[in-house]
Design brief:
Strand content: 15-25%
Distance between the termini: 21 Å
Structural class: alpha/beta
Oligomer: single chain
Helix content: 25-40%
Number of helices: 11
Largest sheet: 5 strands, mixed
Order of helices and strands: HEEEEEHEEEHEHEEEHHHHEHHEH
Length: about 375
Amino acid sequence: MNLTRAAITAIVSDLQAAGLVREIESHYPSGRRPIVLEINPDRGYVVGIDMGATHVTILVTDFSARVVREMDEPLDINQGPAVCLPRVESLVHQILSEAGLSIKDISAVGAGVPGPVVAGVGVMGPPIMPGWDGYPIRDDLEKRFGVPVSLSNDAELGAIGEWAYGAGRGERDLAYIKVGTGIGAGLLLDGQIYRGATGSSGEIGHITIEENGPVCTCGNRGCLEALAGGRAIANRAIQEVNSGRRTVLTEISPVSQIRSRDVIAAARRGDLVSQQIVSEAGVHLGTALASLVNLFNPSMVVVGGGVAQIGDLLLEPIRETVHQRSLLPASRSVRITSALLGRRSSAMGAVVQALSIVLHRLSEHS
């Protein structure tokens, strides 16, 4: 950290005075007993919220980021802020009540949304969030909860969550790819989250893969999201069933109700058509990731989100395609793995952001 012993001693003293850091017993058998410090988990609680296209995950943690309560509920982002934000508020109060807490026990809230977040604006031009463009989400949530709120893109939070507590611990150059209804990337470059000029970096889902491919939610054709996102996987499955292919997906009625989670479940059960659809999505993802690997040269790519929960059926075609299509020095040095935190990645990233708010506020007041 390039700090002197005196500076570190002063900082630690301030943190101890604020109750944020405490000494714990060490178990060294002999010699001078070192002073061991830890974040004081009893100092308070924070909430992490991950709003996806079709769900919301809410975590309540103590100051050591230990999860004391978790909730995952349906949420249709298409219903807009007037419906979604009151529902999120209600669910937060519900989970706090279940944990024996109230909003007065919460020091800060971190929140993520599936769209590009521009500081001071909210989301701008979000392809899968109709009705949210320019809406002041952070200000709205701060009024509802009465505590400081941090707002970020969900894939960016996934990168932070996996870096802090998941597969990417210790990495300085990491890409987190969230594969759900939409597809986004969070980029950690040289130890810092890269947000771009306006905060809208990482929209890998809108890289063109097939020039004349299917129409995407953004209005262009052949985007990665239109070929490998959750909706694309469901649409491919519907096409296969309607064409008469033999698959367990024919058991779902009406056929139009097939969802990506149904395809993933069928693929896990050994359904060949579903496995083929997932594998094709993996090849498309690998094609886009090869360009990312060539451009940014990360040491690790972490694949998360709902679709990624299927594991190697998706990861293997991604790995093979990246290694085929990216330059040798970059492909040799990159590890491609699934998210260690699973569906929690973005919510844990939101927790990290909330704890960061708390740390800065307590440091300023100490």
